[in-house]
Structures are given as C-alpha cells and as structure tokens.
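Entry for the shared binder. Reason: the reviewer on the internal report wants the predicted structure included alongside the sequence.
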Amino acid sequence: MSLNTLGNDAGTVEVTNISNHGVWLLAGDSEMFMPYEDFPWFRDAPVGKILNVEEPAAGHYYWPELDIDLSDEIIEHPERYPLKMQ
C-alpha cells in the first residue's frame, strides 16, 4: 500500500503564528484564528507547548502537553461553546 492510497490528511496541522491576540492554526487548506478571548488556555502557555499540536482525526486537534482538545466546529464557532476555563 502506498502513502497515496491512505487518502487521509489527518495529522497535517501546524501552528503558523502566535501573536499578542491569539494563535493561528493551519490544518490542510484551512487557516483558523483562535483569539485568546475565546481560547484563554493558550495565552500564558509556553510557545513550545502551543506548537506541539496533533490531528488524531480529521478536524480534531490535540495539544498533549496542554491537555487541550478542539474541533473545527469549536474553533470556527466559539460562541456556540461558551464554557471557558477561568
């Protein structure tokens, strides 16, 4: 079986930018912005831990060192998921 027959881009995810306002995540062809206002867990996290992101399944992102699980839906529509760490 060649790699081309696997057909799943799960795992192709990276943090492309960390700014004073939030974190940019590139997953496949989509770039998503996670503002600290909606994703406060990243605000004071060390850069190395933010950069260590995995995509165990398509559209599901996991930061193992921070124990954060997010999906495309949560990132694109944080207003639908109002529970936040204080």
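Summary line for the report: Residues 6 and 58 are 13 Å apart (CA to CA).
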